[in-house]
Amino acid sequence: MIALEGECLSPHVAMAQRGHIRLDWRTPYRTLERIRPMAWTCVCRATVYELCQGGGQAFIRRTVQLDGTPEIHETPRWPANEARVIWAALLSGRAR
Question: Is residue 1 part of a domain?
Answer without folding.
Answer: no
